[in-house]
Design brief:
The protein has 127 residues and is an alpha+beta fold. The chain has a single domain, classed as 3-Layer(aba) Sandwich (Cytidine Deaminase, domain 2). Helix content is 30%, strand content 19%. The protein contains 4 helices and 5 strands; from the N terminus they run H-E-E-H-E-H-E-E-H. The chain has a 5-stranded mixed sheet with strand order 2-1-3-4-5. Strand 1 and strand 2 form a beta hairpin. The longest helix has 12 residues. The N and C termini lie far apart (34 Å). Bound molecules: tetrahydrodeoxyuridine. The site of tetrahydrodeoxyuridine has 13 residues, from helix 2. Tetrahydrodeoxyuridine binds next to helix 2. This is Cytidine deaminase. It catalyses: cytidine + H2O + H(+) = uridine + NH4(+); 2'-deoxycytidine + H2O + H(+) = 2'-deoxyuridine + NH4(+). It is an enzyme of class 3 (hydrolase). GO terms for molecular function: cytidine deaminase activity; zinc ion binding.
Length: 127
């Protein structure tokens, strides 16, 4: 059973590490993994604006760097605690490592990724 309040707080804490001199928006992502550990990410911007990294993207790197596995529950928050929904690209990145049953925090509460990215293209579609 996911402790969502804790996961949200961890996401806010991760957002404090953001490098966001261009947008000024700190974003943090936190996920419970299938082995119970928590991984985090923050956005990392760039002077070449288009190559900046979203928090969910750096969190996917942390998943791989810290032992791999799968996301089972994900929360994204600003540095001031506002709920943020992942952009389209990040929904796809989360789907790769969480699949349709991974739970995502939303304004309606936690919902499966299959509702956040309906009819998704994913690993199962490849030959
Ligand atoms: N951002 C994320 O980190 N995740 C998202 O899903 C949407 C946007 C970041 C990118 C950029 O650093 C800042 O938010 C403003 O767009």
């Amino acid at each position: 059973m996911t402790d969502w309040e804790k996961l949200r707080a961890v996401a806010v804490e991760a957002a404090q590490a953001a490098y966001c001199p261009y947008s000024g928006l700190q974003v943090g992502a936190a996920a419970v993994c299938d082995d119970g550990r928590i991984v985090t990410g923050c956005n990392v911007e760039n002077a070449s604006y288009g190559v900046g990294l979203c928090a969910e993207c750096t969190m996917a790197g942390q998943l791989r760097l810290t032992g791999g596995g799968r996301f089972v529950a994900v929360a994204c928050r600003s540095g001031t605690g506002d709920l943020l929904m992942p952009c389209g690209r990040c929904r796809q990145i989360l789907y790769e490592f969480g699949g349709p049953d991974c739970l995502m925090d939303t304004p309606d509460g936690p919902v499966p990724m299959s509702e956040v990215l309906p009819h998704a293209f994913g690993p199962a579609d490849l030959p």
